[in-house]
Amino acid sequence: MPRLQMTVEALRERALFVRRDIIALLAKAQSGHSGGPLSSADFGTALFFHEMNVNPSRLDDPGRDLWHFSIGHVTPVIYSLMGERGYFPLADLLGFRQLNGHLQGHPSKHDTPGIEVSSGSLGQGLSVACGMALGSRMDGASRRVYCVMGDGEQQEGQIWEAAMFAAHYKLDNLCGIVDYNRKQIDGDVETVMGIAPLASKWRAFNWHVIEVNGHDIAGILQAFDEARATSGRPSVILAHTVMGRGVSFMEDDYKWHGVPPNRDQAEQALKEMGTSLADWTARLESWTRPEVAPGLRAAS
Amino acid sequence: MPRLQMTVEALRERALFVRRDIIALLAKAQSGHSGGPLSSADFGTALFFHEMNVNPSRLDDPGRDLWHFSIGHVTPVIYSLMGERGYFPLADLLGFRQLNGHLQGHPSKHDTPGIEVSSGSLGQGLSVACGMALGSRMDGASRRVYCVMGDGEQQEGQIWEAAMFAAHYKLDNLCGIVDYNRKQIDGDVETVMGIAPLASKWRAFNWHVIEVNGHDIAGILQAFDEARATSGRPSVILAHTVMGRGVSFMEDDYKWHGVPPNRDQAEQALKEMGTSLADWTARLESWTRPEVAPGLRAAS
Amino acid sequence: MSGTTKTAAPVPPAPVNLAKPEMKRTREGFGHGLVDLGERRKDVVVLVGDLTGSTNVNLFAERFPDRFVEVGIAEQNMMCIAAGLAATGKIPFLATYGAFASCRSADQMRVTVAYTDLPVKIGGAHGGISVGPDGATHQAMEEIAIVRSIPNMKMVVPCDYWETRKATVALADDPHPNYIRFGREPVPVVTGPDTLFTLGKANVVREGSDLAIIACGVMVYEALVAAEELSDRGIQARVLNVHTLKPLDRDQVARAARECGAIVTAEEHQIHGGLGGAIAEAVVQSYPVPIEFVAVHDRFGRSGKQDELMAAFGIKAPDVVRAAERVLARKRAR
Amino acid sequence: MSGTTKTAAPVPPAPVNLAKPEMKRTREGFGHGLVDLGERRKDVVVLVGDLTGSTNVNLFAERFPDRFVEVGIAEQNMMCIAAGLAATGKIPFLATYGAFASCRSADQMRVTVAYTDLPVKIGGAHGGISVGPDGATHQAMEEIAIVRSIPNMKMVVPCDYWETRKATVALADDPHPNYIRFGREPVPVVTGPDTLFTLGKANVVREGSDLAIIACGVMVYEALVAAEELSDRGIQARVLNVHTLKPLDRDQVARAARECGAIVTAEEHQIHGGLGGAIAEAVVQSYPVPIEFVAVHDRFGRSGKQDELMAAFGIKAPDVVRAAERVLARKRAR
Ligand SMILES: Cc1ncc(C[n+]2csc(CCOP(=O)(O)OP(=O)(O)O)c2C)c(N)n1
Ligand SMILES: Cc1ncc(C[n+]2csc(CCOP(=O)(O)OP(=O)(O)O)c2C)c(N)n1
Ligand SMILES: [Mg+2]
Ligand SMILES: [Mg+2]
Hints:
The complex is a heterotetramer, with two copies of chain A and two copies of chain C. By secondary structure, chain A is an alpha/beta fold.
């Protein structure tokens, strides 16, 4: 079942799972990032449970699509997606950022099988994805390559080197996704270092640009379809999102970029999402085999 | 006489001088770059002999404008302009790239007084100019800052970091100039790594863009005026030039990016420019005091 | 508070309760040092790359907003903007994580800053493994090697809050480029506001001549603890705080080699090219003696808690004690 | 031609006329090594940053255009694209000037390449001062220090055309990231097509036990010339070619220290953290002896001719001889 192509309805449910996982694992670790993981949860879920051909039970499947998070700090969402998708037991999420766990603060290929390339220093990932896309084309593989970037990250010049390269080599098997949540560590992106007009920039770098509400699953699926149908140039999806999405007191507040909820806050967040810290932690703890977790209705 | 504001006619003559200097000094050194220096000679001359307020006899003049060549490899034109403008004796040009000379292969502040910041690694100069422009504004100085870039150099991501910064900080005292000669070391820029549409890129980074024929002195002066008159954003002049301009057998040929003419070729080039290697070398040799060299008619 | 003109040598170690030291963040020393500077001189400006809070330059930003420059996530740009500011007469301090300050903008540091010899001051936060849960990518452990190799650069790794604060101030007076490394988590305070700090001069923080433990950064505390433990066994270790890695105080190092005959180096850095490398280079050129290295053994860091990590990577006081035993055995065997 | 499986030890120095050696460019060795590889394995791809001719990857590009990737002037991008290619099973070699390979893309080398431990092969051209007239910015002299500090990286500095060619081939078989440094101008050929090259194993290229001269790169030739001169004065110098700086052949180095009791290191690199630093680190941990360093003394290069520069910076054979005299005096004085 490499490409799950779940329905919009099922994806919405799954995204809720992922958000619950994020809160629960952060509450446990008491270290890590809340804001970006929550803003990426919807398109991340669409990627892992609909769009991409991945095969967690055979990590080196030559037919697999390749994904890479250039924003390495959003490990809470990456690991939740991987766990839910069956890369490793969900219980492992509770070892996040701990010395003896296999889930490092930033993605590490050698600690977490399934990660293709380690990351954590911003701005490098799109170049990595370019290499993956070019290598795939050299092999005549039909594989697609997905790269998730941040909006603050667009300030790194290397992004524009990679943008130039991908268009020059007409890498239409490459799809970039920008988590356009308008926040970065020091505040509003437009206040810290304005990146607008972002779509014009990507167009001037000869990419096919798709703008979408990054919390509208149906729209996201359409965007992925449009990217897939675009030939002769790479596509970038500007996913307009809200930092901290799904937790009332985190939404649109840059202060949640890099901090975890404390226990009380986690409890409150999970309550808003229809569960409790104890219940959801128990669900994770009980999940000791890697497999695709069933849908919301079945599980809760 | 900080701002010379020479006439178009005088500037054309001066640019011819500069080209002769370039050939003569390269012929002597038998090492160095021909193509870019010759394509930059016209706007370079307009900068040094019309536009900029510089004071070679008082290098730390607080009222001076600041200039920086981000393309450090075009030292032949930089040093010719400096010599002609009186920063050091023209005779020094003949010590280019030699162990005991003060004219290094790439600009070195501590070897060549008048150079504000050393360069030679591409892509860094516009950032330096941003710092200069911001520092000047902090001091309430009315000074302008000029930065010369290459077109191949536009492939460096740091250029786009600096572009973003300058627009964000509304550095309208900053003027970039791109030597758009369509060539770089490995060939045509559009073949090596396409940068088109370059004007759209700069516009998408919120700069005021001026396109001009980089060999049309009158047009260049107008462009400088337009940049000076632009407020609230930095300006970039895309100077469309021809690599190797002024030497028939070098024009538009990327192979001349980084090599000097041999003696015969230098002789041929100088003949095309109405002088000889012996005569022009003699002019340089005889010039042992730093001062602004007189115009073509007076000198030849 | 001036870093270089207080009480004269010999430098008394502040009265430290090694068993229960006061804990303070070195990055706050950097932040407070910047504020000290901001008050004293108008030409000091501060740049940051979207890490205002984590590098503690927020303290300066709040007080001197007109001299604070947010660059966003663009370290290469930041390094060269600082150079441009220096070219107009400013004394720019820039701050980002040390991993990025040393690596992401290494070419800019080398060519634009160091070759031009501009007084750009580079603040590298989150130095060493003690950064903790962020893991390997954010744990700067190659900085000493990189910065030491570049001409015109100076490199300082202060041992605690006070030394970081004084070093920050002292670096502004040095008309050349330099780099200061500090950490994230609170670490033991082992100096006081009046302890002498002179750029380029090592401090003997404990006398002894059976062996010398030469340390920098947080390892100065670990060295002191180790020396105490060794003293209980009748071994008197001299402890040298080499806060300035470049230029190295070669005289003090040679003296330590000559008078003690055995050395342990202790650093929160990769084993190649760091403090240990610098000391080895100096010693073989002056007075060759056995040296044991306490350092990170050429491996990347990982997520964990400060103390857990230091123990797991073998750079706590007991590791220093064991290294001392090894080097003493070698000394005796010569 | 396989780099590691020819005639067994002891390694005979090729019969070299030291007074008038054959001169060949090491960068051509890199180019030819790539062609050797291109013929042998389909997974080798080559990337370049607008320096096809100067790095001599043109030789590969002409033969295997489908496996050649022009990246333009974007070294950071190139390093990570190489990583991405490696992630899809390729063995990517990238080429640019060493100054940029080591500094402009240091963070990319550290995080994306080395931390992920991908088999990216980094070719650094124009290593050392012998680059000549381009001057300081283009003379890579910090590479050994930088690369050595990064975990998982290997570092090779071959001594001549043949060794560069063999090393290039050998590096492709190493499933980890590594870095090879070569130069621009022709340099003396001191090995032959059959001289043994084993990654990580130093070659004794001349026997002797009064002192050891440990060299890499073009300095192996200078060391041999110096040894000849010393021999005329009755001093027998062992010459060790340490082509692999990391991992260092610690056994051979310790043996040299033990058997010779004095060492001169010779490298075309900054004095801090390079070959001298690596040897010093190894020696103080095994058998401490006096060492003198022949290297560039912590200053930037400048424009000039290859030989002029090497003389001006004090790294020619006579400088090695003088260093030998100094170290022998120290050995005697112990
Ligand atoms: C090269 C580099 N510089 C700085 C950092 C520190 N850092 C981590 S996340 C971040 C902000 C990223 O902003 P954005 O891409 O918008 O992500 P978001 O805050 O929305 O999650 C910064 C500066 C880094 N990881 N890498
Ligand atoms: C960072 C960096 N990478 C590579 C080089 C080598 N290099 C020098 S000039 C040049 C080509 C520059 O092209 P362009 O800007 O168009 O200048 P032009 O050839 O027109 O003079 C290159 C790649 C360099 N100096 N710096
Ligand atoms: Mg964001
Ligand atoms: Mg060009």
